[in-house]
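Checklist before submission:
- one chain only
- standard amino acids only
- sequence pasted in full

Submission:
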Amino acid sequence: MNQEQAQRKKAANHAETDARHQPVEELGDFTTTLRVLPISGLAIVIGAVCAVLALVLLRLIGLFTNLSYFGRWNTAMVSQLEITCEFMLFLCRWSARWSLE
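Returned file contents:
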């Protein structure tokens, strides 16, 4: 490579560097409009609904646990240490295991 070609290459690289560092007046990828506000509100509403549904599901789990182990209508969560009927515990675990397969 001769000296003239090396200078041209250096000038081309310098021009590319200058073009990359030019200040940009408008960033196309990072601009937002007021459309973001309704979308954010919708996300908050969906999150709140999902949180309420999660609480309802936890209450249902507590209800069915109390019904199957203790025979009572209560939605409080119980520990497995409170279960005194070993056969019922075995039966529920066995049925849960086979229902998943």
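Reviewer check: Residues 36-69 form the longest helix (34 residues).
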